[in-house]
Amino acid sequence: MRIIFMGPPGAGKGTQAQRVAARYGIPAISTGDIFRSNVSAGTELGVKAQQYMDAGEYVPDEVTNLMVRDRIDEPDAAPGFLLDGYPRTLAQVEELDGMIRHTGHKLDAAVVLTADDEELVRRLLARAESDGRADDTEEIIRRRQEVYNEQTAPLIDDYRERGVLVEVDGMGEIDEVTARIFAALEGVSES
Ligand code: ADP
């Protein structure tokens, strides 16, 4: 199974991605998590990414694409994968299409979690108190929402046209949202 997860910052992609990946026995690959662990480890990749992340901007496509390509080439991703937070730009969509085509497979589903922007700001500010992410200040949260709306939201139409879009309401209890996603993916079979 090859799945991507999209949705505005704070929509709960990470939590839901873990659950869905576990159900299908595939790795959940979060570009945000990979960047953050590289920032903490002080790697070259981390150094390249940090200034963008701290400002709420996207890391340049060349950097992100290379990183995802390497990760997808790992043996655990051969049977399939769930990408959480990638692709987010048109150039990334094209890159991912190429990577999947190369393996002779297809993208099976693009899950989009929808949510209300103001509720998301509240959730993210609450998260800032508990886990203190550097980019969870109100100003940077609003910039991340803007960047998502400008660069990533338009990609949803493309996946809708391809017939792989699975739109799920991300508001409500975590378990409720998981149940909605599982139900929506029921009809999706692996290509
Ligand atoms: P959120 O979706 O809540 O903003 P993530 O943890 O998914 O948070 O991503 C954090 C940051 O990592 C983003 O603001 C961006 O700087 C960087 N990032 C993650 N994924 C991508 C991507 N696909 N392309 C470019 N930058 C990315």
Outline the low-pLDDT stretches. none
How would a textbook summarize the main sheet?
A: 5 strands, parallel
Query: Averaged pLDDT, please?
Result: 95
How would you classify the helix and strand content by structural class?
alpha/beta
Rg on CA atoms, Å: 16 Å
Number of helices: 9
Helix share, percent:
55-70%
Q: Tell me which ligands are bound.
A: adenosine-5'-diphosphate
> What general form does the structure show?
globular
The share of residues in extended strands comes to: 5-15%
Say how many strands there are: 5
Q: Tell me the CATH superfamily.
A: P-loop containing nucleotide triphosphate hydrolases
Order of strands side by side in the largest beta sheet?
A: 2-3-1-4-5
Distance between the termini: 8 Å
The SSE order reads: EHEHHHEHEHHHEH
CATH class: Alpha Beta
- CATH-scheme architecture: 3-Layer(aba) Sandwich
What name is given to the CATH topology? Rossmann fold
Write down the domain tally. Answer: 1
Describe this structure in words.
By secondary structure, the chain is of the alpha/beta class. It has one domain (2-184): P-loop containing nucleotide triphosphate hydrolases (Rossmann fold), CATH 3.40.50.300. Helix content is 58%, strand content 12%. The protein contains nine helices and five strands. The protein has helices at residues 13-24, 31-41, 44-55, 61-72, 90-102, 117-131, 138-152, 155-162, 174-185; strands at 2-6, 28-30, 81-84, 109-114, 165-169. It has a five-stranded parallel sheet with strand order 2-3-1-4-5. Helix 2 (31-41) packs across helix 3 (44-55) and helix 6 crosses helix 7. The protein starts with a strand and ends in a 6-residue tail after the last helix. Adenosine-5'-diphosphate is lined by residues 9-10, 31-32, 35, 52-53, 56, 58-59, 64, 85-86, 88, 92, 135, 144.
